[in-house]
Amino acid sequence: TKPPSVEYSLTDLGRSMFGPLHQLLQWAELNHGAVRAARNAFDVAET
Questions:
Q1: Residue 23 C-alpha from the chain's centroid
Q2: Helix, strand, coil: what percent of the chain each, to 5?
Q3: Claim: this prediction has a pTM higher than 0.85
Q4: Which of 8, 10, 20, 47 fits a disulfide with 14 by CB distance 3.0 to 4.6 angstroms?
């Protein structure tokens, strides 16, 4: 016999998050180096 299956899908509200999330990921990719440099500078200043 086949076990019961469940199919999941996002609601319209969940799908509306794709645009803002995509923008956030693009920002993170573009600014990764600057964020890493700032974190390193902070770590050096703390020691």
A1: 9
A2: 70, 0, 30
A3: no
A4: 10
Q: Which residue has the tokens 């974190």?
A: 39
pLDDT in tens, 15-36: 999 999 999 999 999 999 999 9
Q: Which residue has the tokens 């794709």?
A: 18
> Cα–Cα distance between 16 and 46 in angstroms, integer?
41
Cα 27 to Cα 22: distance, rounded to the nearest angstrom: 9
Q: Which two tokens stand for residue 32?
A: 């990764």
16 to each of 22, 44, 46, how far by Cα in Å? 11, 41, 41
**What is the greatest pairwise CA distance in the chain?**
64
